[in-house]
Structure prediction request, 271 residues.
Amino acid sequence: MKPSFIIIMAILFICENLYASEKSTFIFLETELSKEEKVIMTNAIGLGFVTYWGIAKWDYFKNDPKQTNEGWFSSHTKEGGADKLGHFYSCWSLSHVFSGVFKNWGYSDKKSILLGSISSFTIMGWMEIGDSFSEYGFSHEDFIMNTLGCASAYLIGTNPSLADKIDFRIEYWPMFKKGDFFTDYENLKYLAAVKLDGFKSIKPEFLNYLEIHLGYYARGYDGKSERERNMFVGIGINMPRILNNFSMKKISKAANFIQIPFTRISYDNKL
Prediction:
């Protein structure tokens, strides 16, 4: 997985500032854009930026199109499969970020997550198509994980009962060795969290502050230590609930996507 975090943040920064008000400046022309036009322009900017960055940094369109087999989660792969979960998580989180922007523009919850998922799929899918014309090659594994990430964002985002129960998160302890933490697989862990407070019948009350975790991570694929792939199961503290109780709503929302270090215990098993 390439440094998508840089691209994602650039796209969102441009779009959020470009359309901060109803009257916006674009290509030196003052225009009034409808919310539908804003969504179209957001996707156009995203596709344009990926194309520019791909040509400048990743040698897009310099080779004939090709496909590559990256081996999913096999031990002999480049990142031990952690990059596949990176694609899933990037599309999952990007769908929700776009959804939040679109909701601020006046779309309903259901329509905003639909458009957010489509936008995420479009931009990340275009990146995969660009890869096919570079040394990377088109990865069907990456494309499938992109699709699953966007589809999960939509299905869970349109089902409040599921959204109250399930989060997909990354856990990251910063080492500041890479500019793009989304590809710092040596320090990333991916996990699904089942929040017990989403089950209304849970008793006693303190169980509502607990979560069940299932996760995966790979280590040693930087060539500096023995390679290993690990799965883990564990119990964590429901930090989104606690932070929300302290009226820290924005941080609470972020905690649905980022696992705060040292707030869980787990049993890790080397595969």
About this structure: The beta strands are 23-26, 29-32, 67-68, 138-139, 166-172, 188-195, 210-219, 228-237, 258-259, 264-270. The chain has two domains: 1-162, 164-271. The radius of gyration is 20 Å.
